[in-house]
Amino acid sequence: MMKTRILSIVALLLMAATGAMAQTETLLTTITATAKEQASYSTANVATVSFSYTAGGSSAYLANWGWWGYGWTATVTAAEEYTITKCIFYDDADRTATDSEAPFVVETTEEDKTPQVNGTPILAYTSKGIKKIEVYGYATPVSDVTLSQDDAVLTVGGETLTLTATVAPANAKDKTVTWTTSDDAVATVDANGVVTAVAAGTATITATATNGTDDTSDDKTATCTVTVTQNYKVTLADGTEDSGNWTISPANPQPGDVVTITYGGTKKVKSVKAVKKAAVIKVTIITLNKTETTINVGSTETLSVTAIDPSNATDKTYTWNSDNTAVATVNATTGEVTANAVGTANITATANDGSGVTATCAVTVIVPVSSITITNAPTEALFVNSKGTLTATVLPDNATDKTVTWSSSDPDYVSINATTGEYEVKGTKGYGSATITATAGGKTATCTITGKVTYTSLKAGDVIRTGDTFYAGNVYFNTKPAMSFNNSNGVITLVENSGYYKFKRGSNGTMPNVTSFKVASNTDGIYIVSGSGTSTSDKFTIAVHTK
User: Fold this and answer.
1) Which is nearest to 406 in space by CA: 370, 394, 397, 396?
2) Do 529 and 464 touch, CB atoms closer than 8 A?
3) Tens digit of each residue's pLDDT (9 = 90 or more) over 84-102
4) Which of 70, 258, 290, 325 has the highest Cβ tally under 10 A?
């Protein structure tokens, strides 16, 4: 009996020394195999099963076996707010194996599909798969609470202070904090930790993390001692007056009493009068003239505060700072930013009244593009359907962004890929010129590409070879079926299609279905035999041209 009592006392002392009661292990969740794993398998946001494989491994799912296969590993991982103490793995016949130490793993080898836990098969050469996993543990409790400050001095008249509570660990399940005051006649506190001075005296502000339960045994607390002072006007016996946050003793002096005040020891006081201090109104919002900006290396830009709310804030001053002075520095008073090196920096204006209110501008520092030149612009007109790729040189070589974007003033004449600079001379509406523009870092360069055709008019005796083009107004051909073209069809190109010579419209890519003119090894196009081709009564007669 005595031994049992001694052991109990020792256990209690150990728990007191660690500052926490042992957590109760419970069944957190059961993960049941219902399909072949994809990337992970989660249940109730409590735990996740993740699969990995050997070089020759794979897994599958069978309703009566669960997860099975060769060379796979399943690892059970707790969600952020939970701690796992053990996992019980059930095979296809509900035989079990328990893993009580992280990592919680069940696996198979490439040679044997029998599930193993800690290197031991659940039942050697008999167990076929894993049907479910019971996950035991507990919700991660709060271990500590700290406040942004341990003590503070406020003045009667509504002065406020915002306390911030930090709960550890960061993955605690319930990090809710409640706030209380030991004396609301001296200082009050709201649900957000805002303390308000009421009357002279001392109050203890307490933040309590309850772990989301009514059981106070595992509560964690942190406190801040708040001293509230009263402004007094002190009239000394010699008739002089002074005001300030004096400590007055006794607390309610009468004329003629000997009063101890903070600045001068023991003096005769003629009168003491409490002076109400105006309420301190804290800044709640700072607004900047911009929230992001780009500055060239070596240049400066001045940021500014455009508004402070509320407009009647007691102290509307602020200070500027940079979180990356190697990239950009800022004048703490004026907000002038100096760009030092390529990179990013956050420039922040912080209210000086202790409210903690800030506003930030993200600054990107670059080496700007100084010029761009198109290096291979065509120097003469190109036939419709011609293709090529333009290139450009961007300076300086160390410009931060040398990306070139291409555009065309008229894609019906010349189209160009905005990224690659690949272009094609088009015959969509005829042929003509387009201005090509290369843009990089706000700088531009241009060139002109002009299209041309093989024939601007047709006549008997002309040979139209594969790839040749014409744009010749109204043209009529004596074919079956009859075909004709006009300028609305765009530039016409002779092409080889399915073993036949055909005329392709530039406007829409269609071709009259004339199959009288076969391509052969000794042919190279169409020959205009006779006619003027200018009307339905005088059509061109055509034939295949022999090389």
Assistant:
1) 394
2) no
3) 999 999 999 999 999 999 8
4) 70
